[in-house]
Specification:
This protein is an alpha+beta fold. Helices cover about 25% and strands about 25% of the residues. Helix 2 packs across helix 7.
Length: about 300
C-alpha cells in the first residue's frame, strides 16, 4: 500500500501518496492511540460520510483527545481527496493519531494528526461472498467489558484480538470468526455486525461495548421500512440453532450471507436477499452522504463539545 500513485489528504493538504509517512516513534504505533474509519465510495459519493466523520471525532474523544478539524471540514477533505484520485467507487480510510513528541504511556503533549486515503477496489473488501454464503467459526477471544476498554470507539488498538481471530479462522479454512461479549452473548464478527432471522423477525445483538455499525443502523432502517420487526437485544449463542438465516454487515463487507457457523448450516433466505438488494439501491441514492439512521453520532459529538 505504500508504493502507489495518487494523493492522500494529510493534516490539511493533499500530498503525494508516497510522501505520506510518519515517524517510527509515533505514539499511536507503540500504544494504539489511533482512531479510524472505513468508508465506501459509490458513484463518486461516500455513503454516510457525515456519520463516519462524526464517529471519528467521537472515537478520538473517547480516547481523550480532540481532532483539530470539524466534522464539516473532515467531510470536505474527504470529498476533495476522492475527487483528486478520480474515484467513482472504492474505499476510504480516515485515520487520526497522536504524534512522536512524547514516548511513554501518557500521550499528553503529542500533536494530533489526520490522514484520509482513498483507493479504488471493486466488490466486497473484507469477506468474499460465496454462492452458499461464508463459513464462520466461533472465536476464542471475547469483546471486552466496558470497564476494560472503550468499545464504542473505533480505535486501532481494539482490533488486535479481531486480527488474531480473523487469521486463526482463515488458517482453519473458515472465512471469519464470530465473537462473544464478556458475558458470553453474541456480539459481532471480527469486522462486522451480525443479524439472525428467527421466527420471521430480524434479531441483532444489542450494542454493549462493541461498535454500533453505520451499516448496522442502515440495515435496521431498511428492515423497518419494509414493516419487519427488528429486535435489538441480548442474543445467546444457542439461538444460532433457531435461526433460519444469518448475515454479517459492515461498510467493507456490505451485507454478507453466512452459510455456516461451525456445524450449523443456513440458506441464503428471502430476508437476506431482499436487504442485499435494498442496500445496493440505498448506497447509490443522491443524498447518501448524510447521517441516515446514524444521527446519534452527531448528537454525541455535539453533546461532548458543549
Amino acid at each position: 500500500m505504500a508504493d502507489r500513485d495518487g494523493s492522500i489528504w494529510c493534516d490539511g493538504a493533499l500530498i503525494s501518496w508516497r510522501e505520506a509517512k510518519t515517524h517510527v516513534l509515533t505514539h499511536a504505533l507503540h500504544y494504539g492511540s489511533a482512531v479510524l474509519e472505513g468508508e465506501r465510495v459509490y458513484e463518486g459519493r461516500v455513503f454516510r460520510l457525515a456519520a463516519h466523520s462524526a464517529r471519528l471525532i467521537n472515537s478520538a474523544r473517547l480516547l481523550d483527545y480532540e481532532l483539530p478539524w470539524t466534522r464539516e471540514e473532515i467531510d470536505a477533505a474527504t470529498r476533495a481527496v476522492v475527487k483528486a484520485n478520480d474515484l467513482t467507487s472504492g474505499y476510504v480510510r480516515p485515520i487520526a493519531w497522536r504524534g512522536s513528541e512524547v514516548m511513554g504511556v501518557s500521550a499528553i503533549g503529542t500533536t494530533v494528526h489526520l490522514a484520509i486515503a482513498p483507493w479504488a477496489q471493486e466488490g466486497r473488501l473484507s469477506v468474499q461472498v460465496k454462492p452458499g454464503g461464508i463459513r464462520v467459526t466461533m472465536a476464542k477471544y471475547r469483546r471486552p467489558a466496558p470497564e476494560v476498554a472503550p468499545g464504542e470507539a473505533k480505535a486501532a488498538g481494539l482490533y488486535i484480538i479481531c486480527g488474531i481471530e480473523k487469521d486463526r479462522a482463515l488458517k482453519a479454512g473458515f472465512d471469519d470468526a464470530l465473537m462473544l461479549d464478556w458475558k458470553g452473548r453474541l456480539a459481532e464478527s471480527t469486522g462486522a455486525n451480525i443479524f439472525l432471522a428467527i421466527g420471521g423477525k430480524l434479531v441483532t445483538p444489542k450494542v454493549e461495548n462493541f461498535l454500533d455499525g453505520i451499516t448496522r443502523r442502515a440495515v435496521i432502517g431498511m428492515a423497518e421500512r419494509r414493516g419487519w420487526t427488528v429486535e435489538e437485544r441480548a442474543v445467546a449463542p444457542q439461538e444460532l440453532d433457531d435461526a433460519s438465516e444469518v448475515f454479517l454487515c459492515g461498510t467493507a463487507a456490505e451485507i454478507v450471507p453466512v452459510g455456516a457457523v461451525d456445524a450449523r448450516h443456513y440458506q441464503i433466505g428471502p430476508m437476506t436477499r431482499t436487504l442485499m438488494a435494498d442496500y445496493a439501491e440505498l448506497v447509490r441514492q443522491p443524498d447518501c452522504e448524510g447521517f441516515g439512521e446514524s444521527g446519534h453520532f452527531a448528537q454525541l459529538a455535539r453533546a461532548k463539545a458543549a
